[in-house]
Amino acid sequence: MSGEFNLIDKYFSNRQSQRKDVLLSLGDDCALVKPPENVSIAISTDTLVAGTHFLASANPAWVAHKALASNISDLAAMGATPAWVSFALTMPEPDEQWLEPFCQSFFELADYFGIQLIGGDTTKGPLSLTLTVQGFVPEERALKRDGAEIGDWIFVTGELGDSKAGLEVILDPAKRSQPSAVELEKRHYISTPRVLVGQALLGVASAAIDISDGLISDLGHILKRSNVGASIDVSLLPVSDTLRAYLQDSTSAQKYALSSGEEYELCFTVPDQNKGMVESALAHCGAKVTCIGQVRPQGVLELHQQGNPIYWQLAGYDHFKV
Ligand code: ADP
Ligand code: MG
Fold it and tell me: Which residues take part in binding Mg(2+) 1 (predicted)?
């Protein structure tokens, strides 16, 4: 891209203090980093494409938050501690009015989690953002998807469903007049990755995942990888007052909680003998945690309401259909 170097210098270089484990940051052919002893490096990449994961007209500060938070959330789901991020940016033209608020928000969140931008690429084309985050997790202890066993308890952090409602508001301006609509729109873009929760669950949880495609779908990944099933009591699903006000119907709120994607809350399983530890292990994390069900034998994902079976057809999560 013409002016690429100016752009990189102006917006991406020297925006953060150096981490000690970054030996060489932006400006050379590669970054050089030095991980600590006895850790595995957790690495995850996510792409956000304008028109699919955000609207090109969306607030650039919110887009930056969503892009980085969704990546950090993958580290959180493994119990990893964030360390470094690389950023590949494709945009049609150098757009400083977009980049300024984008970078402000990006570096604010990066600094909050102590994560340093160590490199990237800048190219011309349709607006898209690809981030690769890296973090550390003690060797052999990462929270994976394949560790759930029959009898384990199923927990989620935070409240579920707001992101789906926010997406609806973004796509249908007529909905902006509904109660809490503007708050939900912001909630779609702004989430707090559950890094502290993930770290605190090391040695406590048997499996974990972050909710990016909807609880049913993401819990489904744990069940499949672990060869088990599950039973969920929908009346236990944590939903916000904001969502209840918007939908004015608690059954709809429960359905939203089951299918809402891009929540970036954690869903995790805990063996019965560790159940009593969950509250104290997470006490310092500032996150609400709710037990919503239990792992069952393979092949069953049963929904019930205080013991009464229910059968709902739930739509999948589709990002933006534009
Ligand atoms: P190369 O031609 O070797 O790929 P570039 O000209 O693409 O180098 O980038 C120059 C330097 O700026 C590299 O260190 C690269 O990591 C960094 N960089 C380029 N674009 C970005 C970006 N969007 N975010 C962070 N660092 C970037
Ligand atoms: Mg390059």
Answer: 45-46, 121
- Here the CATH number for the domain that contains residue 91 is 3.30.1330.10
Contact 47, 130 (CB under 8 A): yes
For 17, which DSSP code?
P
| Domain's final residue, options 138, 171, 187 | 138
Please give the pLDDT value at position 166: 95
pLDDT in tens, 18-70: 999 999 999 999 999 999 999 999 999 999 999 999 989 999 999 999 999 99
Pocket lining for ligand 1, CB < 6 angstroms: 8, 12, 26-29, 87, 89, 117, 119-122
Total count of domains within the chain: 2
Tell me whether residue 157 is annotated as binding.
no
311 annotated ligand binder = no
pTM of the model: 0.93
Q: Indicate whether 158 and 134 sit together in one domain.
A: no
Residue 257 — left, alpha, or beta (φ > 0 → left; ψ -120 to 50 → alpha)?
alpha
Ligand that lies nearest to the alpha carbon of residue 118, given by its number in the listed order: 1
